[in-house]
């Protein structure tokens, strides 16, 4: 049997690790799981978890309390001079921006992410290349164009495909058992 305080510590550690993870689908699934767990609302890092789950922009000033929860290895500075947390928040904010904007200049993106435009371009390029974000960069005009995965279009195409398959089956039944099909359809119309 695991004591409740140990469970909360494990939950806090899972939340911190999820927040620090690279932006993308696996992290989004973990954010959803943690956000729906009522015990997470008790954690001091819940406000950051909530903003990440709801795809809201996070400012650097909002991270000071969260930084106190980090262990020494989680405060490591990477080769580009940024911490793991800074990377995670910048990637998160870039994904959040992709849901707010159809396109944005690199200058504007840099201001939004609170980093130089060149760094914003590098991070956006890497996320697009790694397929963690949909879009493309117009280097001539210095604009990032975001593309949304069209869920409704996909859904419509799946429904259309299903309808075509049903029609194909009806056509085959008509050829083989036309008389039976006519009787069955007439009986359905009467009801």
State the helix count. Answer: 8
Structural class: mainly alpha
| Overall pLDDT confidence | 89
> Could you give the count of β-strands?
3
- The coarse silhouette is flat
- What is the terminal separation in angstroms? 60 Å
Order of helices and strands: HHHHHEHHEEH
- Uncertain regions: pLDDT < 50 for 5+ in a row? none
Largest sheet: 3 strands, antiparallel
Keyword list:
8 helices; mainly alpha; single chain; three-stranded antiparallel sheet; 191 residues
Task: Tell me what the structure shows.
By secondary structure, the protein is mainly alpha-helical. The protein is 62% helix and 6% strand. It has eight helices and three strands. It has helices at 4-20, 25-36, 46-53, 64-67, 84-100, 106-113, 117-129, 151-190, and strands at 103-105, 135-138, 143-146. A three-stranded antiparallel sheet has the order 1-3-2. A hairpin with a 4-residue loop joins strand 2 and strand 3 (143-146). Helix 2 packs across helix 3 (46-53). It is flat, with a radius of gyration of 25 Å. The N and C termini lie far apart (60 Å). The mean pLDDT is 89.
How would you summarize what this structure contains?
The chain is mainly alpha-helical and 191 residues long. It has helices spanning 4-20, 25-36, 46-53, 64-67, 84-100, 106-113, 117-129, 151-190; strands at residues 103-105, 135-138, 143-146.
């Amino acid at each position: 049997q695991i004591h409740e305080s140990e469970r909360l510590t494990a939950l806090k550690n899972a939340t911190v690790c999820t927040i620090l993870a690279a932006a993308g689908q696996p992290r989004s699934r973990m954010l959803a799981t943690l956000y729906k767990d009522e015990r997470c609302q008790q954690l001091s890092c819940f406000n950051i978890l909530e903003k990440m789950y709801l795809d809201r922009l996070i400012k650097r000033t909002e991270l000071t309390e969260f930084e106190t929860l980090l262990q020494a290895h989680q405060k490591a500075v990477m080769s580009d001079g940024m911490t793991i947390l800074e990377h995670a928040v910048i990637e998160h904010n870039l994904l959040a921006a992709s849901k707010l904007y159809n396109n944005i200049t690199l200058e504007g993106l840099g201001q939004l992410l609170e980093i130089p435009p060149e760094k914003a371009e590098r991070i956006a390029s890497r996320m697009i290349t790694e397929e963690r974000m949909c879009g493309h960069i117009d280097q001539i005009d210095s604009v990032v164009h975001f593309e949304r995965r069209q869920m409704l279009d996909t859904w419509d195409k799946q429904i259309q495909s299903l309808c075509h398959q049903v029609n194909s089956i009806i056509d085959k039944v008509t050829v083989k058992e036309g008389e039976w099909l006519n009787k069955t359809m007439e009986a359905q119309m009467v009801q």
